Amino acid sequence: MNGPVLEVDSLSLEFQARGRAAEVLSAVSFALNPGETLCLVGESGCGKSMTALAIMRLIPAPGRIGGGCVRLRGDDLAGRDEEAMRQVRGNKISMIFQEPMTALNPVYTVGDQIGEPLRLHQGLSKSQARVRAIEMLKSVGIPLPERRVDDYPHQMSGGMRQRVMIAIALACDPDVLIADEPTTALDVTVQAQIFDLLREQQARRGTAVLLITHDMGAVSEMADRVVVMYGGRVVEQGGVREILAQPRHPYTQGLIACLPELDREPDDVRPDLPEIPGVVPSIWERGQGCPFMERCGQAMARCRDAFPPLTRVGEGQEVACWLYPEAAR
Fold first, then answer.
1. How does DSSP classify residue 226?
2. Of 115, 281, 290, 322, which one is least surrounded by beta carbons within 10 A?
3. 276's torsion region: left (phi>0), alpha (psi -120 to 50) or beta?
């Protein structure tokens, strides 16, 4: 099948609380192509992880999808019942969660946990699943897999637990792998190893990867394309080179300006590292306009009244900002 493997189209997510509904995601749209790495970028609270949970239909109560659709190879997942979604999760779409110590079950061995989706989705026996689990542990670089297959999560380091999570996620050769901050709480050396492992496995299997991160260094290393989110909305998207070299939205410009300059000469006077003033607004404080308005040094009156459409401003690059005449038209 040609075209995107995953399409998120005008997805909205709302939570009912305090006697009214608050919109967490508003008309989020993007597409993920086979074999591609797409990075969702933004500060904590911008909606990245909620987007992933909405795709997986793992939205915590009292949240619900308020509109839009999620299509996996043309099949709308938003309309599937829970039983049908169980056949998709871990099989066609898998997810690596932020913290493996809480995502892994402490009372089952890692071999049992790798084998579970294989038994469920591929009908393997327990002994067959064990053999496959050893193969998966070996493929993600865990030494002595024949012994470690019987270990429990607490017997492994943080980096090894994250490798186990990757093994579980890739066990059934999914079409799409969602990696939600997969290197959180890991040291820099282990982070590099995990990213190398993801690239290696992707190249071997042709899996499309949706990487969720706030680390622009990881974006430059891993991404083919980038979607920048703020306040539950997509504010910019495009190829990684275009986004990093010529960011258009004031928020994207602020994110990139906050990166430290590692190539500065030792005797250069180092200025204070820039920062974006303020904080991400809560879901109760978002109006009809641009959610970044209160933190933006270029905000205009119309920014308060309406959120601008996502408009093409360059080769494959789109931005939602009233600063650009294309959006105003």
1. E
2. 281
3. beta
Q: How far apart are CA 76 and CA 55, in angstroms?
A: 10
pLDDT digits (tens, 9 = 90+) for 91-138: 999 999 887 778 899 999 999 999 999 999 999 999 999 999 999 999
Angle at the Cα of 27 from the Cα atoms of 15 and 212, rounded to 5 degrees: 80
> What is the end-to-end Cα distance of the chain in Å, rounded?
36
Q: Name the residue type at position 25.
A: L
Give me the amino acid identity at 142.
Answer: I
* CA dist., res. 50 & res. 109, Å (int): 29
What is the three-state SS of 245-311?
Answer: HCCCCHHHHHHHHCCCCCCCCCCCCCCCCCCCCCCCCCCCCCCCCCCCHHHCCCCCHHHHHCCCCCE
Model-level pTM?
A: 0.92
Cα separation, 195 vs 182, whole angstroms: 9
User: Could you tell me which of 164, 71, 174 has the C-alpha nearest to residue 122?
Assistant: 174
Residue type, 325: P
